[in-house]
Amino acid sequence: MASIPLRLRDHSYDVLIGPGVRTSLAEVVGRLGARRAVVVSARPREWVPDTGVETLLLPARDGERDKTLTTVEALCGEFVRFGLTRSDLVVSCGGGTTTDVVGLAAALYHRGVTVVHLPTTLLAQVDASVGGKTAVNLPAGKNLVGAYWQPGAVLCDTDYLSTLPRREMLNGYGEIARAHFIGAPDLRSLPLADQIAASVRLKARIVEVDERDSGLRHILNYGHTLGHALERATGFALRHGEAVAIGTVFAGRLAGALGRIDRARVAEHQDVVRSYGLPAALPAETESATLIRLMRHDKKAIGGLAFVLDGPNGAELVDDVPHETVEHVLDGMPRMPLGELVDEAVPAATTDTARP
């Protein structure tokens, strides 16, 4: 088991990673001093560990369709009916959309109750459950309504990953691949548990420096500006990690077009993404103009198009990137029908093997 601390000025917690760590939930609940708990789970009842206190179990569904303010309101209504107080806590058990929605509900209910995350997907374990960002979508874009609400603990049980289909594993590898360009070492030869720990350790160090996304934390959005636009443009037919992987390749090409990195570094973006079995081409059904319009709604965009890009000083936020340059790079990307784009990906690693 790995234990990675995340230490902030006003709040600290640990991220536990390894097989069976979900069984420590009752100990965590006791340490946090909660009398009662609400567990919101997108997984079967038998995958939900005992909390050690009186508990209400609520079903959830992973997926963007339920990542809405309506879902948050419904959860808060259940909290009221259960009589949840600020001395109690909420537990999320599911993928990244579940940790996001439950985290936001916990942040808003009574102006904040403790939340503990049990992420059950690779994507949630390496990224979504760590760092305290919670958000839901609006019709205009992804993650436009949210709050910063740090959890009391995060339990990344790698046993959960044995239940995932191939494509859901690939979804998580999209975030691991982008970590290569924001300060992580080359993770491709490591066992999966070590890849998860390295990704979490990197994110924890960044969040400790910049909890509220005012500077350094922007680099965690590497590949996400186009990634979020692709999710919206395809009606979420592309998973988040798949879209971020394509966005990472695009970020390398855009950095090259702006003279920030050389050709070898541009090629490295595609090599890393493809080595994880992830897609690297744009869906043929998407138009550059549509993607640019969606990217203008990105949270980082203040006056124009903004991207986190590689450069001589590493990854950093670049504001007001010329529309014409973005369009030129998008038009120059390889394209593939959406169905083929997903199907041509190679299988992801299992929990006890390393990526090739």
Give an account of the 3D structure:
The chain is an alpha/beta fold. The chain contains twelve helices and 13 strands. The chain has helices at residues 25-32, 69-82, 96-108, 122-128, 166-179, 192-209, 224-233, 240-257, 263-275, 288-295, 323-332, 338-343, and strands at residues 2-7, 12-18, 36-41, 54-59, 89-94, 114-119, 133-138, 141-148, 153-157, 282-283, 305-309, 316-321, 335-336. Helix 2 (69-82) crosses helix 3 and helix 3 packs across helix 4. The longest helix is centred in the middle third of the chain and has 18 residues, at 192-209.
Notable characteristics:
single chain, Rossmann fold, Dehydroquinate synthase-like, alpha domain, 2 domains, 7-stranded mixed beta sheet, two-stranded antiparallel ribbon, 12 helices, 13 strands, globular, disordered C terminus
What order do the helices and strands come in, and which of them pair?
Blueprint: E1 2-7, E2 12-18, H1 25-32, E3 36-41, E4 54-59, H2 69-82, E5 89-94, H3 96-108, E6 114-119, H4 122-128, E7 133-138, E8 141-148, E9 153-157, H5 166-179, H6 192-209, H7 224-233, H8 240-257, H9 263-275, E10 282-283, H10 288-295, E11 305-309, E12 316-321, H11 323-332, E13 335-336, H12 338-343
Parallel strand pairs: 2-9, 3-4, 3-5, 5-6, 6-9, 10-13
Antiparallel strand pairs: 1-2, 7-8, 11-12
Task: Report a brief summary of the structure.
With 356 residues, this protein is of the alpha/beta class. It has helices spanning 25-32, 69-82, 96-108, 122-128, 166-179, 192-209, 224-233, 240-257, 263-275, 288-295, 323-332, 338-343, and strands at 2-7, 12-18, 36-41, 54-59, 89-94, 114-119, 133-138, 141-148, 153-157, 282-283, 305-309, 316-321, 335-336. The radius of gyration is 20 Å and the shape is globular.
